[in-house]
Design a protein that fits this description.
Glycoprotein, Type 4 Pilin; four-stranded antiparallel β-sheet; single chain; mainly beta; OB fold (Dihydrolipoamide Acetyltransferase, E2P); 4% helix
Length: 199
């Protein structure tokens, strides 16, 4: 309810699942009633409902637990796990976690122009988990490796870290030069997508 003070229209958009998740418009009617409407992809209100609370909610920012009384008398407890730097709030109920983002109607309108990030397929690559120096390889191009087998060693903060194979396969190439500096997410090793080409 406090989030409704983000704008003067007494309404807020709740995104379930983050910025690209399902949108629900919540409008403040009075101290214990709200109108909720699911929004379709164009922002058109569908499935309108009126929600009436048994009591006026009191909210303190320090509270991590909220108790919600449903129509059938069931009381559910929701835990706030935290908020990240994008404003997404992690909520948990009965072991299930959901990301929630609160937006003003204007923020929602502008978010329609954002495109979801494309997921890169890194199945055939081993990426550096940290910045550091590539110390050595334990494999060569053309070698068949198993899950968990040592591939290389990266030194970071004066510690040597063994990088192990995330899958079984055949090494297509060892990308980094031994002794070179690498950044986090740099490709170190590439696997053949299928079997290696015939020799």
């Amino acid at each position: 309810m406090v989030a409704l003070t983000k704008n003067d229209n007494k309404s807020i958009i709740v995104r379930l699942g983050g910025i690209f998740g399902e949108a629900v418009k919540v409008e403040y009617l009075d101290s214990n009633s709200f109108k909720t409407s699911r929004l379709d992809e164009e922002g058109v209100e569908v499935e309108e409902r009126i929600v009436i609370l048994d009591e006026v909610p009191s909210y303190k920012r320090s509270d991590l637990l909220a108790r919600v009384s449903l129509n059938n008398g069931d009381v559910k407890t929701i835990q706030m796990l935290g908020e990240d730097n994008t404003g997404e709030i992690s909520l948990e109920m009965k072991g299930a976690t959901v990301k929630v983002l609160l937006q003003t109607p204007r923020e929602f309108e502008l978010s329609k122009y954002m495109q979801p990030p494309k997921e890169a397929d890194t199945t055939d690559f081993v990426l550096s988990p940290m910045p550091g120096t590539l110390i050595s390889y334990a494999v060569e191009e053309g070698e068949i490796v198993q899950i968990g087998q040592e591939l290389c060693v990266i030194e970071a903060m004066k510690m040597q870290n063994i990088i192990r194979s995330p899958r079984a396969g055949t090494i297509a190439s060892c990308r980094g030069a031994v002794g070179s500096s690498i950044m986090a997410d740099d490709v170190i090793i590439e696997f053949y997508s299928d079997e290696p080409p015939p020799q």
